[in-house]
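Box 3.1 A note on notation
Throughout this textbook, protein chains are presented in two layers. The first layer is the amino acid sequence; the second is a token string describing backbone geometry. Keep the layers aligned when reading.
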Amino acid sequence: TLVLDAPRLQSLTLENAFFLPPGPSSILSDLRSLDLQGPCVLPHPAWGVFTLLSKTPRLEHLRIQMLVFRHAQGGLWEQYPGTRVHLEHLKTVALAGGPYANIAGFWSRVRAPNNLDFYASFSGDPPPELAAALDSQLRCPSHNSVTVNLGRERHLSVSTFTLLPGDRNRVILDGGGGATLTLLVDLDSHIQLEHISRFTLRLRVPYTIDQDPLVEFARKCSSVHTLILQTDIPAAFEALLAPEDNVTPIFPSLSTLS
């Protein structure tokens, strides 16, 4: 752990090293960007990172690799003795998690705006817990677009689609494998699906998919008017585009298909 007296610091990138200000009253009021990289970047216990974050009141960009922990209990986030860390100026967050990272445990102890550009890759988090931790961001009132990627790269995103990239905000959850479908089952209690007007689905070979969770999730997005399908097996979309006879169309308001 490095102790550095740099109160005017604006950007900090560390690889396999941790940093703390010199005293308990030290505040990094100018720090806008924090990037912690490498398998051994976090302190032990990992919740010590909150000591640093609590001193960055104007932080805008946060990236942490949570790859390796000294024990199977992950970051022991639940043992953090403090209150939730307020990061009210955050704009972008990227969290890369390993098998014991418990990104949900970390994020549940952070209070941040709901209109973030948020990315998380996870392998050890049960999807329902992650969705619950991200409830505020998933419920962002401006979110109007969902992307389900079930191809070579599997992830799910909820975003605000506009013609101005600078105005977009999104939540991307990259769990790979069956985690994406598991998220679909749980996310309908966190996303305001009635606001979703744009639905993008990508299917690529090779893939294995139980279509039931996907169809049930899509059916709850009843306000979708723009549907974008990308696949190398058109028959994979039959359950969405051609439901059985006497079954209500999945997208009754659909006006644009591409």
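The CA atoms of residues 29 and 56 lie 6 Å apart. Helices lie at 49-53, 103-107, 127-133, 135-138, 179-187, 211-219, 238-241.
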